[in-house]
Design goal:
- Helix content is 4%, strand content 46%.
- The protein is mainly β.
- The protein folds into three domains: 4-199, no CATH class; 208-319, Carboxypeptidase-like, regulatory domain (Immunoglobulin-like); 322-405, Immunoglobulin-like.
- The strands form six sheets. Strands 1, 3, 4, 5, 6, 7, 8, 10, 11, 12, 13, 14 and 15 form a 13-stranded mixed β-sheet that branches. Strands 16, 19, 20, 21, 24 and 25 form a six-stranded mixed β-sheet that branches.
Length: 407
């Protein structure tokens, strides 16, 4: 009997929805590293001979044929026209995107291959019969769509019919053909040709084609609540470069978010439960990277990104390791701002841009900064008029309080 696990899969919905939402302009995602899948079992065999030509829905894989046109079909009774096809790790995803300033997934179908055996990058041919029992050799199939304004998802471990041909990876893409029909009431199916963009699995380190890059693990000693933000700012070749993304701390693993820009930034909660960030395809230069939990502490580090390299820069969020800064002023109103120094030097980024990115500001009457990451800073006092009134160089140490008087 076919086995279908129904209901919205939250991890799938979140990862698909956040994968396409970010800052900046759209850009091709990173190339995937070779991933292996299980060899075909007797009931999952290489295609052979010429299949009988049929159109649309067909649960008899022996009758499958792939029309010589881009893959289209039906999903939950509505037209399904994928606009993006990606191969991420062991998952082949066909997604129809909602247009707009912040694109998101409207419908998707994902074929999930096992993680051992032949290399997906080498390409293969595969047939799954509808009467094949559930086993480790049978790929899972997930769907995501909206019924009205409510998200709907299905998970199939067997009962579907699939004919798939995937070519060898070349320059980060793999071409292929697919005919798949699902055992649902809406007779969902997808048939046609495709070109899949090969992507790395979230959390995998950047490859040589994505350098220069900076990446690392983000750890937090606080509660699993709020949002986690990661960002980068620099001024290579005189041009300010900045990127930020955020992701809810609480929730299932396997989620990620990515900016849609020429320099994609990704924040992923991996299947192993670790938060990892990466900034790729950067111009060589000096950058500040940071992570902030809201509510919660901040961590930052200056890094040099060299041509052809991927720099590992872990960030640790721990309010107990932070310091405190108290400020006394003789003016009633104004704004206090902390800007991280690069060692003993001023930051190699315009102060206005750096202050806007890090948001380490407080009004004069606050008289203190709590949970300040250890390091050297410029403390700048600006009057309500916008004029700079005073500034001091200060060093904040773990567990200590620094008192500063401004004239």
């Amino acid at each position: 009997m076919p086995t279908r696990r129904a209901g919205v899969t939250l991890g799938l919905a979140l990862s698909l929805a956040t994968a396409a939402v970010g800052c900046g302009q759209s850009a091709p995602p990173p190339a995937a590293a070779p991933v292996e899948t299980a060899p075909a079992q007797p009931a999952v065999a290489d295609t052979a001979g010429s299949p009988v030509v049929v159109a649309g829905y067909e649960l008899d894989a022996a009758k499958h044929a792939v029309p010589p046109a881009p893959a289209t079909g039906l999903l939950d009774g509505s037209p399904f026209v994928p606009t993006e096809v990606s191969l991420t790790g062991t998952e082949l995803t066909f997604a129809a995107m909602k247009p707009g300033d912040a694109p998101s997934v409207a419908r998707s179908l994902t074929v999930k291959f096992p993680a051992t055996g032949v290399k997906l990058a080498d390409g293969f041919k595969l047939v799954v019969a509808a009467d094949q029992p559930e086993s480790a050799a049978v790929p899972g199939v997930d769907t995501f769509s909206f019924v009205g304004d409510k998200p709907s998802g299905q998970v199939y471990v067997n009962g579907y019919a699939l004919t798939l041909e995937l070519g060898k990876r070349d320059a980060g893409v793999q071409v292929g053909k697919i005919a798949i029909s699902l055992p649902d009431a809406g007779k969902s199916y997808l048939a046609g040709t495709f070109t899949a963009q090969a992507r790395r699995a979230p959390g995998d380190p950047p490859g040589p084609d994505e350098s220069p890059a900076v990446h690392g693990l983000v750890t937090s000693a606080g509660e699993a609540k709020g949002d986690l933000e990661v960002g980068l700012i620099g001024q290579p070749a005189g041009q300010v470069v900045t990127e930020t993304v955020s992701l809810a701390v609480a929730g299932p693993p396997g989620r990620f978010t990515r900016t849609e820009s020429l320099r994609p930034t990704t924040l992923a909660l991996t299947a192993g439960g670790q938060f990892r960030y990466e900034h790729v395809k950067l111009p060589p230069g000096r950058y500040l990277v940071w992570a902030r939990q809201t509510p919660g502490p901040l961590a930052w580090a200056w890094v040099t990104v060299a041509a052809g390299t991927a720099t590992d820069a872990p960030l640790a969020l721990d309010a107990k390791q932070a310091g405190k800064l108290t400020v006394t002023t003789t003016q009633p109103t104004g704004t206090l701002r902390l800007l991280p120094k690069d060692g003993d030097a001023a930051p190699p980024v315009p102060e206005l841009a750096l202050g806007y990115a890090l948001k380490l500001d407080a009004p004069f009457d606050a008289k203190a900064f709590a949970a300040v990451p250890p390091g050297r800073y410029d403390l700048i006092a600006t009057l309500k008029s916008g004029d700079e009134w005073d500034r001091k160089s200060v060093e904040v140490k773990s567990g200590e309080t620094v008192a500063v008087k401004l004239k």
